[in-house]
Amino acid sequence: MFKALCAFVSLYALIFSYQAHAGAKDDFIKAVKTQCGKSDADAAALATPGRAGNVIKLKTCSSATITVGDCTLQCKDASSSIGG
């Protein structure tokens, strides 16, 4: 029973962590399309993953803007709203 419960919890966590990352990427693509006028394909190409990727740069921005390629994105200053 314990193994089944652990398997269920692991699967549940995996599904929701994937959705959280997909949301950040979707938010990034939407921002690039609206603020820079890029196409879907161009915005998706700029959505680089990883700890140093562009998606994380927008999600955790520490200034009013971030520059991604030839595009400058406006973002909320995350340093003034830690935890929220």
Descriptors for this entry?
3 helices; mainly alpha
Low-confidence blocks of residues: none
Tell me how many strands there are. 2
Instruction: Summarize the biggest pleated sheet.
Output: 2 strands, antiparallel
User: What is the spatial order of strands in the main beta sheet?
Assistant: 1-2
C-alpha-based Rg, rounded: 16 Å
Which word captures the global form? elongated
Number of helices: 3
Secondary structure category = mainly alpha
User: Helix coverage percent of residues?
Assistant: 55-70%
Strand fraction? 5-15%
The first-to-last residue Cα distance is 37 Å
Give the helices and strands as they follow along the chain.
HHHEE
User: Please, what is the average pLDDT?
Assistant: 78
* Count of spatially separate domains: 1
Question: Could you walk me through the main structural features you see in this protein, from its secondary elements to its overall organization?
Answer:
The protein has helices at residues 2-36, 40-46, 54-59, and strands at 65-68, 71-74. A hairpin with a 2-residue loop joins strand 1 and strand 2. The mean pLDDT is 78. A two-stranded antiparallel sheet has the order 1-2. The protein has 84 residues and is mainly α. Helices cover 57% and strands 10% of the residues. The protein has one domain. The chain has 3 helices and 2 strands, in the order αααββ.
